[in-house]
Amino acid sequence: MNPLVSLCTGLLLLAVSVSAAAQSWQPNREADARDQVSTWTRDVPDSPVKAFRGVVEVPHGPVPVLAAITAVDTFPEWIFQVQASEAVPDTGGERTYMRFNGIWPVSDRDVVLDNSVSQAPESGAVTLHSVNAEGARPPSDGYVRIPALDNRFVVTPLADGWTRVEFRTFVDPGGKVPVWLANLVATKAPLVTLEGLQAQLEKPRFKNAGQDDLPAVFDGIRF
């Protein structure tokens, strides 16, 4: 091979490798047991705000977990910094409005989310994917609209009756938010949210939930 071509190829492979490494998940908290939360963060190209991810296993089947993560009225009880939430009427769970408490010195935020559901045929894993619905409604007075949000709950049934829950999010909070604050949120949000979900699952409403307790967007999902 021409030495110049060889050098260029080597540099290209190095650049790809460095880029992939920069975008890989970096551990933030490593759990000691399956029912403890592990968390990661990841750099996002062209964004100062990191994506975040958390994973935990819970001693419940997937239906109670799905019931808990779609009970919009309880979001302020367990999702990090949620101030208020409501299902948009007549959408069958496909659209949600949420308000978030700002952390000083930033203002409160709000967002309208479009929700979609899919199921992996082999593992039975269900993904609830939520993204901001652009132009759905104007922001409420006193709130800054979140311009970009991509959130996934991946709920995977395990052979022993437990369920693995993965929570993965990238958010552009919009407005003027210090990078240190945005990335502080990235480290706390998955831990607080998944530990909050564990607490919700001990409540009779969710522990005893069945398929009929899921919103219409889950029609066709079976275990």
UniProtKB/TrEMBL annotation:
Residues 1-22 form the signal peptide. Keywords: Signal. The keyword Signal applies. Residues 23-206 form the START domain. InterPro entries: START-like_dom_sf (IPR023393), START_dom_prot (IPR028347), START_lipid-bd_dom (IPR002913), START_lipid_transfer (IPR051213). The keyword Signal applies. This is START domain-containing protein. It comes from Alloalcanivorax venustensis ISO4.
